[in-house]
Amino acid sequence: MRIFINQFDEQFLELHNRSCQFVKKIPNDKLFWKPRETKHDFVRFSCGAYILRSAGTVEQTFGGITSRLWDDPFEWTLPEELSITDKISEYLAEVEATRQKGFAFFASDEDLKKELPAPEKLKSIFEILLETAARAEHFQGRAFAIFQMFSDERLPII
Fold it and tell me: What are the two backbone dihedrals, phi and then psi, of residue 134, each rounded to the nearest 5 degrees?
């Protein structure tokens, strides 16, 4: 049976689609705009940085699942490399292709019980996917919050 695999697949696809829709709404001049920081605030990033972190979380997980390489994609997703919305959209498409390749490894929900060193300790694939979805959606939500500071445009439906 593939009940949980299908649910995870749908959740990650929705996350991807929301990010793609969202990036199209961000003007290039606001892509890496940061709100004013005060000494009492947490560190704030921009819409672009949060969307890259969201996608990078997914890329890291599926790179780890497929090749056991848990490299942090932040090194190659720097704003200097992905400085406009079109480039971020291309990156999102690459991440989605990596995710789909990862899901092709799963034959049944039994596969989600397998444990992997992820990257520091053994975790079930189910646990890895659950944590990844939560972190990626968290970063996406932060991007949405920053966007609302400079735009009245509607966000993609969550």
Answer: -65, -45
